[in-house]
Q: What sequence folds into this?
């Protein structure tokens, strides 16, 4: 056998090997370059989209868009035979249309959106008067990037009807969300799932953030871009505006056509987190973090935003009210509304607020697994009572403020989405309170606390056997007691998540860290369930809104 020649002894072979090596290196660099180019293109697209949405959330843009829409409507001379439609004129709902036309007679308007391969979407359009000759409304429900057939049904006061049909391609969505959600459990035929739209509040991402509407068939019916962070719930005032958070700094009021009538900045002293509620004066009370604190405490303030003037005032500093307890905790935690923040002291972590008619308020504190009742929140706030495991507060005067548990059931672990329910059938001094009980015992600021004192609680962040729960309490303030009147297991989510009792008698539950939400019957039977791909870690909340008197009649 001849020896293999060396490159040194055969120059031509050396050149061939050099060419081969250069080709391999070149291909590697090429593939790496393609990856870098893809990343750069994606980054550039996100930055351009972010800048576009930042522009949308300005008074100048909204005024310009409104002027443009009014001019176009006036020039259109639209009738029922020549209907004017503007695609997302205010930049606030990607797949929506503003519809405008006149009729010779007074009629109401309903519409159906049909797209092959998807369930139909039918709603009665909102009008200031049920029957009118001038019609202007926001039409929801177009399916992106496919042909949509829109059928408008005009109904006069005598019940006579006529229809108009328009075909147009649905606008492209801006986000990466599914158009059709996976239905892991499909409801039985004829099952009443209600007419609400599932509103996805916080499928948080590192890119552009949105709020989404899905119908009960799991079809995307609205994509509302926000500046960043998330919206936490929707509030409806007496002036026809829908309010939601558009960032940690911004609360906005949107009208029925999608115009942002109010864009309010909380200023340089506070950022919002987790929740807010509307008081009787249409002002907004928010959970907040005070910025530039010397102790770096977070998520322990309550502020009020005057929706008329935009002014912000502090209502309550929990750190002052519970100073002894706060001082007993370890300086630890993160600021969930500011991922870049360091050395934070998250000793309470309020995640829900409920305002009551008498001026009091209920708060859910995740870090202590406690529900807190505060009297006269907007006046001189004082502690009324607490609900939960009292030993968390041992050694403080607040330990004696707990209501007594009436019955054999475990207390909550890191509960979210508490909801107050007044019931006329109950005596004065009693009410219902329901929640998503994460059933997770942990507190970075109480590293030595033994959470096993709560029977059945999980101390594992990830577990195949742990379960969270929907829970409903009857609270008797007269007797100083609370008792569990309903509960059932749901998929485990150690953080975030929500529960909502619906008008059809079902309970909507979002197990946020699993990307699962669905409707359960009152006995805990799963009626229908949907899965949504997570942009990062979780879906913060899912609430259902019927939008009656806003988008729909």
A:
């Amino acid at each position: 056998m001849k020896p293999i020649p060396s490159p040194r002894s055969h120059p031509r072979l050396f050149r061939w090997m050099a060419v081969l090596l250069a080709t391999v290196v070149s291909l590697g660099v090429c593939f790496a370059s393609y990856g870098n180019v893809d990343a750069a293109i994606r980054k550039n697209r996100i930055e351009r989209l972010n800048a576009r949405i930042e522009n949308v959330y300005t008074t100048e843009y909204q005024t310009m868009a409104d002027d443009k829409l009014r001019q176009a409507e006036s020039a259109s001379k639209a009738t029922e035979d020549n209907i004017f439609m503007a695609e997302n004129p205010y930049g606030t709902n990607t797949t929506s249309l503003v519809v405008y036309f006149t009729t010779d007679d007074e009629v109401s308007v309903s519409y159906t959106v049909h797209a092959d391969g998807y369930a139909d979407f039918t709603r009665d359009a909102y009008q200031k008067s049920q029957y009118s000759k001038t019609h202007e409304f926001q039409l929801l429900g177009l399916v992106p990037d496919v042909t949509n057939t829109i059928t408008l049904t005009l109904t006069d006061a005598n019940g006579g009807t006529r229809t108009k049909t328009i075909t147009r391609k649905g606008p492209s969505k801006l986000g990466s969300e599914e158009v059709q959600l996976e239905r892991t459990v499909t409801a039985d035929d004829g099952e009443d799932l209600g007419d609400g739209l599932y509103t996805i509040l916080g499928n948080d991402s590192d890119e552009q953030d949105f709020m989404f509407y899905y119908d009960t068939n799991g079809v995307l019916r609205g994509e509302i871009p926000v500046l960043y962070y998330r919206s936490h719930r929707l509030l409806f005032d007496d002036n026809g505006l829908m309010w939601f958070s558009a960032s940690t700094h911004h609360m906005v009021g949107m009208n029925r056509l999608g115009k942002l009538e109010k864009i309010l900045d909380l200023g340089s002293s506070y950022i919002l987190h987790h929740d807010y509620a509307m008081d009787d004066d249409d002002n907004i009370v928010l959970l907040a973090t005070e910025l530039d604190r010397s102790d770096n405490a977070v998520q322990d303030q309550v502020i009020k935003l005057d929706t008329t003037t935009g002014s912000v005032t502090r209502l309550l500093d929990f750190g002052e009210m519970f100073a002894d307890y706060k001082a007993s905790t370890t300086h630890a935690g993160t600021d969930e509304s500011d991922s870049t923040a360091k050395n934070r002291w998250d000793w309470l972590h309020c995640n829900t607020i409920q305002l009551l008619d008498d001026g009091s308020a209920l708060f859910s504190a995740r870090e202590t697994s406690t529900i807190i009742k505060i009297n006269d929140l907007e006046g001189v706030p004082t502690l009324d009572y607490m609900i939960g495991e009292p030993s968390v507060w041992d050694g403080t005067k607040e330990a004696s403020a707990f209501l007594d548990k009436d019955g054999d059931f475990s207390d909550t672990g890191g509960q979210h989405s508490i909801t107050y329910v007044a019931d006329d059938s109950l005596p004065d001094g009693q009410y219902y309170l329901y929640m998503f009980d994460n059933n997770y015992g942990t507190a970075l600021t109480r590293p030595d606390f033994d959470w096993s004192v709560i029977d059945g609680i999980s101390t594992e962040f990830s577990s195949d056997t742990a379960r969270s729960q929907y829970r409903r309490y009857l609270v008797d303030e007269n007797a100083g007691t609370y008792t569990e009147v309903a509960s059932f297991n749901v998929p485990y989510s150690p953080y975030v998540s929500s529960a909502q009792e619906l008008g059809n008698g079902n309970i909507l539950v979002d197990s946020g860290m699993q990307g699962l939400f669905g409707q359960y019957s009152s006995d805990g039977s799963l009626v229908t369930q949907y899965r949504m791909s997570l942009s990062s870690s979780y879906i913060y909340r899912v609430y259902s809104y019927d939008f009656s008197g806003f988008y729909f009649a």
